[in-house]
Design the sequence.
């Protein structure tokens, strides 16, 4: 016998919202194990204590934001509609079944007005990391870093071309000092001082979102993107740092400053790091050595001129500061340029009679020049680290940690595309996405630990 349930939609029932949310629901675990009381302290100075209309409870506001990132709800309008019909969302916000859901415009107004030019989203992310540290879920000894691209909310065909200058790198002062010391030691004259080594470069600037950058990378989509430079701790794969740049910024540029930021902010005693090949630069290798950190960086493939000897076929003699070619001729030191490269040159008279000249150089004066950076020793140590047993084991952890963190963010939390435009708004999205990922890990770990013990 067929029965219809249509009439039951008009029935009145006496229920408790507490009974409608399963005991093992994600939001129950988050509410149980994450302490959100710090939010009131962080935003109290942004509210007037004695005039104006009563404001929406900041905790409810931020919990609404968290819901959007927990479940990858990209639109704030859609978030409002989802809260209206989802009992678990209402329970998490402290709303009853008949309570009015805060308007979606409240979130956007607070973002544009009250929280503009504040560090509230960075503060929230940091506080979640600190809670993870208190639960012994972050070791701070081994860190993995990488970047992922985020498609900007911009049409790649709408842009203007502008001439800009490349930013002076953070390490330039240190490099200049090292070059001057090197030249004095070798009896060379000091180079004329030059504060910057910037070069003019033509770039595409989006007319829709000027903060984004036009990204052109092998194997990557082409267009306007942002980059999320992320670091995770290897112990429980929690995100410990998030930094957003335009899509045309090289991965290595912000790395050392962000590493130092974590050491200072959280008191990390970093012993080892594992990085992709994009970070294999002499300044990073030197920076890791100066900080006494065991660095493992993937090999970067170079494409030397076909038919000529590779640089590795020339042997460097550190004690005599010279190179020896495959035919046992010595290439003597000549000078050190302002970019930090030592120049070693062969004797053109000997090279002219060498039977392997065509495999060595194609210069008209028959002179072979080999360059070596003054910090090349640091890079060679990193290469040896990568080939060591512990280095190989450490690098294999990347796919289980940082790569998985990015995959979860994109697959589960809507992190493939930028919700809003502008560097500040994209930074908010990156920080809040990483924060909710950390919240989930903390909640699941503590719940599992409570059941076991």
Sequence:
């Amino acid at each position: 016998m067929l029965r219809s349930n249509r009439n039951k939609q008009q029935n009145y029932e006496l229920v408790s919202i507490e009974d409608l949310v399963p005991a093992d629901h994600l939001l129950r675990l988050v509410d149980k194990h994450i302490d959100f009381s710090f939010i009131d302290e962080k935003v109290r100075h942004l509210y007037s204590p004695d005039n104006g209309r009563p404001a929406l409870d900041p905790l409810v506001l931020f919990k609404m934001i968290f819901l959007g990132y927990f479940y990858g709800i990209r639109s704030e309008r859609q978030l409002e509609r989802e809260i209206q019909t989802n009992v678990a969302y209402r329970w998490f916000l402290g709303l009853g079944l008949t309570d009015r859901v805060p308007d979606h415009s409240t979130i956007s107004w607070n973002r544009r007005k009250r929280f503009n030019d504040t560090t509230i989203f960075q503060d929230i992310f940091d506080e979640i990391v600190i809670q993870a540290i208190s639960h012994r879920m972050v070791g701070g000894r081994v860190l993995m870093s990488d970047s992922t691209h985020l498609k900007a909310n911009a049409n790649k065909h709408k842009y203007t071309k502008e001439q800009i200058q490349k930013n002076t790198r953070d390490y330039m002062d240190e490099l200049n000092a090292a070059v001057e010391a090197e030249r004095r030691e070798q009896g060379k004259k000091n180079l004329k001082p030059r504060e910057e080594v910037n070069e003019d470069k033509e770039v595409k600037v989006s007319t829709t979102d000027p903060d984004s950058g036009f990204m052109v990378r092998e194997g990557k989509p082409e267009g306007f993107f942002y980059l999320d430079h992320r670091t995770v701790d290897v112990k429980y794969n929690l995100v410990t740092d998030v930094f957003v740049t335009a899509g045309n910024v090289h991965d290595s540029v912000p790395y050392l400053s962000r590493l130092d930021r974590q050491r200072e902010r959280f008191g990390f005693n970093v012993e080892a790091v594992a990085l992709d090949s994009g970070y294999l630069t002499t300044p990073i290798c030197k920076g890791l050595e100066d900080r006494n950190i065991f660095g493992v960086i993937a090999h970067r493939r170079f494409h030397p001129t076909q038919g000529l000897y590779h640089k590795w076929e020339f042997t460097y003699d550190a004690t005599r500061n010279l190179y020896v070619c495959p035919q046992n001729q010595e290439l003597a030191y000549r000078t050190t340029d302002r970019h930090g490269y030592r120049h070693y040159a062969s004797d053109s008279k000997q090279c002219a009679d060498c039977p392997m000249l065509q495999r060595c150089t194609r210069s008209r004066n028959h002179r072979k020049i080999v360059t070596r950076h003054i910090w090349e020793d640091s890079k060679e140590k990193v290469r040896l680290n990568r080939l060591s047993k512990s280095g190989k084991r450490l690098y294999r952890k990347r796919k289980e940690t940082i790569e998985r963190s990015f995959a979860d963010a994109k697959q589960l939390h809507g992190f493939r595309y930028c919700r809003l435009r502008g560097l500040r708004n994209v930074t908010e999205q990156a920080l809040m996405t990483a924060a909710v990922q950390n919240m989930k890990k903390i909640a699941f770990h503590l719940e599992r630990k409570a059941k076991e013990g």
Observations:
- The first helix runs from residue 17 to 20.
- The chain has 17 helices and 13 strands.
